[in-house]
Design goal:
Elements: H1 2-5, H2 10-22, E1 43-48, E2 54-60, H3 66-76, E3 81-83, H4 84-93
Parallel strand pairs: 2-3
Antiparallel strand pairs: 1-2
Length: about 100
């Protein structure tokens, strides 16, 4: 709400809001989420802006805020989705 009250973009508010949930322990998303059937915590995130541009990541590991990587996919690549090792490599290439 702070971002919106200061006339910020809804996209920024959504990203920051999701980051709050991603940072929670023992929640359904983020590094504190339940592991998959192989015992790994794998993460997914997607985001869309007001112009219907989209970005998403799936099967990402060891990244605190996958929503941020999804936004970077939207803003810095021609892709809509990156998955697994490709998503991981992209995150690292962005300094995450």
């Amino acid at each position: 709400w702070e971002i919106l009250q200061q006339n910020g973009r809804a996209l920024d508010a959504v990203e920051k809001g999701v980051m709050v949930t991603e940072a929670e322990r023992n929640c359904c998303v983020g590094l504190g989420a339940n592991p998959d059937r192989d015992g790994k915590v794998t993460l997914d995130a997607c985001i869309m802006d007001e112009n219907f541009n989209c970005g998403s990541v799936v099967f990402l590991e060891r990244i605190k805020h996958p929503i941020h990587i999804a936004r970077l996919v939207m803003e810095k690549t021609p892709h809509v989705m990156l998955a697994g090792e490709g998503a991981q490599q992209f995150a690292v290439s962005q300094g995450i």
